[in-house]
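User: Modeling request: complex.
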Amino acid sequence: MIPVAFDYTAPSSVADAVSALGSDSEEIKVLAGGQSLIPVLRLRLAAPTLLVDIGRIPELRGITDEGDALVIGAMTTHAEVADSDLVKEHAGVLAKATEAVADPQVRHRGTLGGSLVHADPAGDLPAPILALDAELVIAGADGERTVPAANFFHDMFATAVGDREILTKVRIPKHTGWGAHYEKFTRVAQQWSIVAVAATVKVDGGSISAAKVALTNMGATPIRATGVEQALLGRAAAGDTVKQAASSAAEGTNPPTDTNGDASYRRHLANVLTGRAVLAAAAN
Ligand SMILES: Cc1cc2nc3c(=O)[nH]c(=O)nc-3n(C[C@H](O)[C@H](O)[C@H](O)COP(=O)(O)OP(=O)(O)OC[C@H]3O[C@@H](n4cnc5c(N)ncnc54)[C@H](O)[C@@H]3O)c2cc1C
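Assistant: Request completed. Predicted assembly structure:
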């Protein structure tokens, strides 16, 4: 289907983008990589009167080392994040989850910021961002504000970013030396996650001294498996011990039932995949 007609603007700075978002056009949408928005427009699930294309704003792109944190511009593509040596070294679980997004074509166009604001419960990037205790920087008419990942995802397809705001960058505290793994369960290759687990752990002398675990598609928003994180502390980074700690991963979750599986199947998957993710993270 052809989208409903809309006006289009492509500002070259965040200030100009915010100003375009403040215009009196009835319904405005931000266009990033277009990998989720364009299908939505073609299906006429949204009919904006104005598209603000943020793809020509240099300050929204790139990955920088700011000492104790990495800062990733919202328009940085999945391919750039997955290939980045900085991300691999300091935020390994994000690199691994990003490698698992879709196919090379989508990863070439889709952006980190677009995935986070789109907030699909089955999207692969909210969980690692939550696990890494990232902070998200949002620009709007009232200036800039920073929101911790724990407060960013409000509901299915709903985040802290308002209609007339832009996510500009993501600040990720460095997790240098932490093992990392993203365990994604799909029925066929290059599918959205049925369930997935982002795990990053620190291992000292064979024991887990710190663990961060978050679940994809086990509720409307990504969920931190805090019970598992606590149960892992001080435990040997080995088979049965980790599996036992992981067996409570699904507690407190509210997974969907759909054609890929019902809620109880997903709870079983979450427990099994968490064990696998933590063991793989501890081994690298
Ligand atoms: C065939 C296919 C398979 C896919 N498979 C997967 C998968 O397996 N895993 C996965 O995680 N994703 C998958 N995706 C989605 C992909 O990761 C998209 O790139 C992502 O969901 C959206 O990023 P985008 O840059 O394309 O954003 P857009 O499509 O341009 O925008 C998405 C939404 O976010 C808003 N938005 C975007 N950027 C900003 C910003 N900086 N500030 C404010 N609002 C903003 C837009 O207004 C829109 O509402 C798939 C997509 C396709 C087409």
